[in-house]
Amino acid sequence: MMKPLTAGVTRANEGLDSISWNILGQTYVPKSLSEESFSWHATFPPGTFVPPHIHPDQDEYLYMLEGKLDFMLGGAEAQATAGDLIRLGMGVPHGIFNKSDQTAKVLFWVSPTKKLYDLFWGLHNMKEQKPDRRQHASGPSEALCGSLPMIADRRLQTRSRLHQPARLVFNGEQSVLACTVRNRSQTGAMVRMADWIELPDTFELDIPAGDSRRVRQCWRRGDDVGVAFLTPDETRPSEVISLAEARARRAGRGDPG
């Protein structure tokens, strides 16, 4: 249960509990938090963006402090500069892009808070994604458009914390890697791998004490991998690579052992 909002002043260049999130290359600093509302200061370096997504049960507002941002607002395009207020009602698809060569700074707030504060912790320090300038001119790629809402959907599901031995199986059952399921929901799971190795987009998550599910890799941070359970009618071809080739890729990138 969140604490009620208290009267006071959050000073410039300060945030709640000295928190600072790195989300898709942007810096978010929470300014206020209660059940009813949540606000944060955001810094958008040139070329960074938030892919199109929706908040089905939250109103969102952005007050431009510095710079210029481009928006996709419910299918229409818009721009905003310092002093402008952007209104995003519940259920309105929207994306945010800094196509300029200047840093943009924005004050965001949403009402009610729901699970957004927890989601930001989940997104913190995830791998940054930057499309090229051609994609910026016409909107982000389809894959990136789907990334944030997919992550949000998975994170907002109730998850059970586990420590359950399992296996990742791919390459026609020729490659089998040990892992541990750390948490799980109805739509996905987070697994911790025993050995860092390149994974295909889709593979089998085999839980000896439970069941086996076809999954898609959504994100990765070190040895931790977030996966979404595929439905029977979802078919995405997975890249077939050998363990030797996967380790060679790893060595070529200079990843730590």
Mind explaining what this structure looks like?
This protein has 257 residues and is α+β, with helices and mostly antiparallel strands. The chain folds into two domains: 16-156, Jelly Rolls (Sandwich); 160-253, predicted glycosyltransferase like domains (Thrombin, subunit H, Beta Barrel), CATH 2.40.10.220. It has helices spanning 116-123, 133-138, 142-156, 243-253; strands at 21-23, 26-33, 38-44, 49-53, 59-66, 68-73, 76-81, 85-88, 94-97, 104-111, 160-170, 175-184, 188-193, 202-206, 212-221, 224-229. Strands 1-2-3-10-5-8 form a six-stranded antiparallel β-sheet, covered by helices on one side. It has a six-stranded antiparallel β-barrel with strand order 11-12-13-16-15-14. The chain has a four-stranded antiparallel β-sheet with strand order 4-9-6-7. A hairpin with a 2-residue loop joins strand 1 and strand 2 (26-33). The longest helix is centred in the middle third of the chain and has 15 residues, at 142-156. 20% of the residues are buried. The model is unreliable at 128-147, 149-157 and 235-241 (pLDDT under 50).
